[in-house]
Automatic annotation (TrEMBL):
Keywords: DNA-binding, Transcription, Transcription regulation. The keyword Transcription applies. The keyword Ion transport does not apply. This is GntR family transcriptional regulator. PROSITE patterns: HTH_GNTR.
Length: 225
C-alpha cells in the first residue's frame, strides 16, 4: 500500500454524474429523453470513458434506464413511482429528523434550516417558482445532511432528484407559497423545540399532500367542440 498516493479530488466520472443528475432534476432532460454519448461527451467536454461510468452510476441510482440495442433514457415515472418516491422520502427524512432530535445541541441544524427558509421566502417574494422549488429542495437536503448520516444523505440525494422528476412528469400544481413556507417553518420550529411528535406529524402530512397534488391533479377541462 506504500506506493499508493491519496486521492485529493473527485473523479471526472463523479463530476459528470453530478452535472447530468442536476440537468435531470431541472428538467433539461425530461423523462423519456434519450441520452446520446457522442452529444453529451461534446457538451461536457469529456471523453466517453468517464461519461459511460457516470451514466452507469445514474442507472444504478434509478435515474436512467438502459434499453438493449437502443441506449440510455431518463426514466419515466408513473403514479406508483410517485407514491414510492414519497414513501421512501418520508422514511429517510423521518430517520434524519429523529437523529437530529436526539442531539443535545440542535442549534447548527436549526440555523441551516433557517437559512434555507430565508431562501424560500426570497423566492416567494420575487414570484420565482423555480427558485422556490430549488430552495424547497435545499431545505430537505439540509435536513438530511445535518443528521450526519452519509447513507441517509446519499439516499436523499437520489430521492430529491426523483421528486423533481415527479413534478415535471406529472405537472404538479404547487401549494400556495405561504402554505409551503408555513409547513417548513413548523418543521424547523419542531426541531428547535425537540418536539418529535410534531416533527413527524408535519413531515408525514407534508409528504402526503405532495403525493395528492402530483397524482390527483384533475385533468384540464375539455375544449368545446
Amino acid at each position: 500500500m506504500g506506493d499508493l498516493e491519496p486521492i485529493d479530488r473527485r473523479s471526472t466520472a463523479a463530476i459528470v454524474a453530478d452535472r447530468i443528475r442536476a440537468a435531470i432534476m431541472r428538467g433539461t432532460f425530461p423523462p423519456g429523453t434519450q441520452l446520446g454519448e457522442v452529444d453529451l461527451a461534446a457538451r461536457l467536454g469529456v471523453s466517453r470513458g468517464p461519461l459511460r461510468e457516470a451514466m452507469q452510476r445514474l442507472v444504478a441510482e434509478g435515474l436512467l434506464r438502459s434499453e438493449r440495442h437502443r441506449g440510455l433514457f431518463v426514466r419515466d415515472l408513473d403514479a406508483a413511482d410517485v407514491r414510492d418516491v414519497y414513501t421512501a422520502r418520508t422514511a429517510v427524512e423521518r430517520a434524519a429528523a429523529l437523529l437530529l432530535l436526539a442531539e443535545p445541541d440542535r442549534g447548527p441544524a436549526v440555523a441551516r434550516l433557517t437559512a434555507a427558509i430565508a431562501a424560500m421566502e426570497a423566492a416567494a417574494a420575487a414570484g420565482d417558482a423555480v427558485a422556490l422549488a430549488d430552495a424547497d429542495h435545499d431545505f430537505h437536503a439540509e435536513l438530511v445532511a445535518a443528521s450526519g448520516s452519509p447513507r441517509l444523505h446519499r439516499m436523499a440525494r437520489t430521492l430529491l432528484v426523483e421528486t423533481r422528476m415527479c413534478l415535471a412528469a406529472l405537472q404538479q400544481t404547487a401549494p400556495p407559497p405561504e402554505d409551503l413556507l408555513a409547513e417548513h417553518r413548523t418543521l424547523r420550529d419542531a426541531l428547535a423545540a425537540g418536539d418529535a411528535d410534531l416533527m413527524t406529524r408535519v413531515l408525514e402530512a407534508h409528504m402526503a399532500d405532495a403525493v395528492s397534488r402530483i397524482v390527483d391533479v384533475a385533468p384540464p377541462p375539455a375544449l368545446p367542440a
